[in-house]
Amino acid sequence: MFVDEVDIHVEAGHGGRGCLAFRREKFVPRGGPSGGDGGHGGSVYVVASAHTNTLINYRFHPEFSAERGGHGEGSNRTGHTAIDLELAVPIGTLVYEKTGDANQPYRLLADLTEEGQRVLVAHGGRGGLGNARFASSTNRAPRKVQPGEAGEVKDLRLELKLLADVGLVGFPNAGKSTLISRVSAARPKIADYPFTTLTPNLGVVRLSDDRSFVVADVPGLIEGAHRGLGLGHQFLRHLERTKVLVHLVDVSGASGRDPVADLDTVRRELELFQPTLAAKPQLVAANKIDAVDDVARVEALARRASELKLPFFRVSAASGAGLAELLEAMWHRLAAARQSAA
Ligand SMILES: Nc1nc2c(ncn2[C@@H]2O[C@H](COP(=O)(O)OP(=O)(O)OP(=O)(O)O)[C@@H](O)[C@H]2O)c(=O)[nH]1
Ligand SMILES: [Mg+2]
Known about the structure:
five-stranded mixed sheet; Rossmann fold; Spo0b-associated Gtp-binding Protein, Chain: A; 342 residues; six-stranded mixed sheet; 14 strands; binds magnesium ion; alpha/beta; binds guanosine-5'-triphosphate
């Protein structure tokens, strides 16, 4: 199961309490205060890790608390410092804090986009001072100590937005998973029925000269996806960080739909979901070119792409025909997008 949004509750550890003690030793009368400080409570961090790719664990286990600091002890011994708690999340996770403010319910704390990147989400409490700290020239036997500070308590929302360069979009059964399995090491399920892919898949495409980029295969879209039809738009946000979109359109006739209408529908759904998605550079790939029974359908799609000024490709994800050119075009579009972003 792929989970990309969870609410969790975290509590940092309280600081240990300061100790009230006096040095008691034979032949040392009135040895003076000797209560040590409390130890620091554990803090809570959220850390990006390449070893996890879903937030599923947090769905079943949404509450975390770090250890409290040790209490101070006699003979000026400081309580032990608690170990910090680290919560591992997939790369691409956004960490929000719930504010309790109805107008602005969430505040972004961090966008963890690199391996090992971490954010402190709840500060451990400082340990209280022991009575040894309160000795002064006028008070040589202080009985004062501090309690440890409370650890911070936070309600967080974790939201995963995959980091991919190129997103594959299209109707169910268009061949998106077949394509990604052909051009990368990703091995999603492929089958001859709609909605085979239920969660996004990522694959790394490697071209000559050490050029590489990440492609995302997202579940198929249908008309009305933006208002929840089919698998809905819940996965479209995984395209938000892509730089290029590739429309994969089935031109074989097997779907019984019109390829031009398919392209227009998916473009409209993107627009309705989020105009910035629809504004991304796009390519159109007519897929299943090996199984075309009516070339007029392919030509109509080519014309529509040209009207929209979108580069057009004829490919077969199954046989591999045309894929080399499509990948080069993805790379060039991506390189241009990266350049204009820089
Ligand atoms: N003839 C032919 N069949 C293809 C081609 N590409 C994919 N298919 C077939 O089309 C069907 C659907 O392919 P998938 O890759 O699962 O399609 P998808 O777009 O990932 O579908 P969803 O996950 O449901 O959105 C499978 O039976 C594939 O074998 C192609 O180039 N030619
Ligand atoms: Mg699929």
